[in-house]
Amino acid sequence: QVQLVESGGGLVQAGGSLRLSCAASGRAFSSSAMGWFRQAPGKEREFVAAVSWNGGRTNYADSLKGRFTISRDNAKNTIYLQMNSLKPEDTAVYYCAARSAGQALIAVTSTAYNHWGQGTQVTVSS
């Protein structure tokens, strides 16, 4: 059974940093693109960042470029999201997602991802 488990969320002051991790199990994800999405209260889930199967290509939501960095370690079946200069509007539940095996290219729409984690809360105080 495929499982994605996020960690690293928490409460941080504005301007601070957090590093989210997503550990995948159940199968190797080295052939799958993976991504991060987030959902704030009362809002729809939105794309944050994505990384191709080998980490060679990344994509970010325009509003997050320069502050967030996605990376992956296929040897550990883990992806990361480094978040710097956090703002109160970054407060949300952050979800890790993976595409199906062999779908190596990044995607920005949630419907392109077949596997999801349970989410980790990030709260940024002003």
Write the layout of secondary structure elements.
Layout lengths: L2 E5 L2 E4 L4 E8 L8 E6 L6 E6 L6 E3 L7 E6 L4 E6 L8 E7 L16 E2 L3 E6 L1
Parallel strand pairs: 2-11
Antiparallel strand pairs: 1-3, 3-8, 4-5, 4-9, 5-6, 7-8, 9-10, 9-11
Q: Globular, elongated, flat, extended or rod-shaped: what is the shape?
A: globular
- Uncertain parts: none
Q: Helix share of residues?
A: under 10%
Instruction: Kindly name the structural category.
Output: mainly beta
The helix tally amounts to: 0
Our estimate of the beta-strand percent is over 45%
Count of beta strands: 11
Query: How far apart are the termini?
Result: 40 Å
The secondary-structure element order is EEEEEEEEEEE
Rg result: 13 Å
For the largest beta-sheet, the strand count, sense and barrel status come to: 7 strands, mixed
Overall mean confidence score, pLDDT: 95
Describe this structure in words.
The strands form two sheets. Strands 2, 4, 5, 6, 9, 10 and 11 form a seven-stranded mixed beta sheet that branches. This protein has a four-stranded antiparallel beta sheet with strand order 1-3-8-7, with no helix packed on it. The model has no long low-confidence stretch (mean pLDDT about 95). The protein has no helices and eleven strands. The protein has about 130 residues and is mainly β.
